[in-house]
Design goal:
The complex is a heterotrimer of chains A (253), B (56) and C (222).
Chain A: H1 4-8, H2 14-37, H3 51-81, H4 87-118, H5 127-147, H6 152-183, H7 199-252
Helix pairs in contact in A: 2-7, 3-4, 3-6, 3-7, 4-5, 4-7, 5-6
Chain B: H1 3-36, H2 45-55
Chain C: H1 2-19, H2 21-40, H3 45-77, H4 80-86, H5 91-120, H6 128-153, H7 159-185, H8 193-219
Helix pairs in contact in C: 1-5, 2-3, 2-5, 3-5, 3-6, 3-7, 5-6, 5-8, 6-7, 6-8, 7-8
The chains are: A mainly alpha (253), B mainly alpha (56), C mainly alpha (222).
Chain lengths: 253, 56, 222
Amino acid sequence: MPGANSAAKMTATPVTRVLGVSALAATALMAVLGLIVSPPDVIQGEAVRMLYVHVPSIWIAYGSFALTSTSSVLFLRRSRRRADQGRHYDRLAGSAAEVGVVFTAITLITGMLWGKVTWGTYWQWDARLTTTVLLFVTYLGYLALRRLPAEPTVRSRRAAVMALISFVNVPIVHYSVDWWRTLHQKASLSVGRRPEITGEMYWTLLYSTLAVTILATWLIIHRYRVIRLEELRDEEGLEALIASRLNKDVGSH
Amino acid sequence: MSEVATVVVGWGITFVALATYSTWVVLRGKGIGQELGIGEIEQSDVEKDTSATTDS
Amino acid sequence: MLTEILLVARKDLRVERRAKIALGQVAPLALLILMVFAFALDANTSLLERGAGGLYWLAVLYGGTLLIQRSFDVETDDGNMDALRMSAIGMPSLFLGKALALFVQITVLQLILGPGILLLYNVGVVDWALLFAAAIAGTLAFSVCGVLWGVMSAGLRVRATLLPLLLVPVLAPVLLAGSRAFETALGVRAGAGWTWAGLMFVIAAVHTALGLGAFGFLLEEG
């Protein structure tokens, strides 16, 4: 089969193999540093170890969503000129959004657990928590839109526009929720007891962010390739369908 | 829940979630690749042909 | 351009006047929602009075979503979308025209819901100007976002479930602002009612700008 060799590269290449192995090693080391080597916090005690998964996760999530928006702009610009162009930006937008949603979910879960031990409650109607949940749901909606059965170009365009509008909407949501929680009532709980991040804790956090970034990069690349394969399969399915129809027509004559 | 238990559960959920998602992505790629017959570099066309004939 | 906008809006409203979906089905349903809230809160008068602003906007959200859905089902049912795309009407006019028609319909819905909360929830108005400003600002934001997300899910088979999922996160700030502004106008909360009303105008303006820029992409085919 011509092109089989290049196509085979789409599920794994030496580069992504190396990246995958580094991601595995990096996260293992992250667990050692975050759970064993780094010291407990003076105020928060052991609970501070949540920091090393919680904070990098939300950074990665923000980064992924920013990548989704950037690729969506590029996709719209490219596909405006010719409808069949810029598909790779569309795939990148989709894979980044999915990885972003996974990390947002992790942020929310670890944040709620962390909140339970430090604030005494899983949930607070705090601006950041509320905004993050709305962000999560927004991008779930984006992924739902991407999954729909529709003509690929139309679907990609709509998804790209949605990604853009959602991105513009993030600050609006954030400031309105922020106003809501600060304009009218005094904060009922003192949330401000943040751990002092210095020394070993600082380096552990920095390292964890690096480890999670490697993992997220690997995930986005692989997800991108899977989206490409899904498109290929759909195209091939369509071609096979047309071919079988044609055969039938020929046979009946 | 104690602080240590919370940390264990939090890290546990994170790692399980990421491992599950990674596995899903890789397996889905492999699955579709095989469906299209382009997944494995090693698998030669000859092999595919023989398997096709034994199937039929 | 203005004539084009009016043309599109008038077309939508004429369709609506014939079918009477907004008045005949959506408005009674929204009133029912107001009743159901009273069931949920055990007809607790003080809770209902304090929550009236928020419950009002929830009812608007529910009814509004149905109206938005309807506004685009009308277009996609008989391939009207293609006709619109072919017509000489510019994309910005199409966007604004549909938004205007939705604005009128949601206003009608609110003219029924407004007296509804005043009578059923036993609330009084202390600031009529704020009440109207907030209602207008909120309706503007609803209709502009509605058109934008309505066209996003138009013509897809699962639009009935997709539209609310896409719409609610975007409208969350509007619901928040509308509820707070109404609470101030209804005298159950001291505070920055006008700031909230202003925020809704800003949201409406931002989404109008986005819609004018993006509507062409959404309607173009392949």
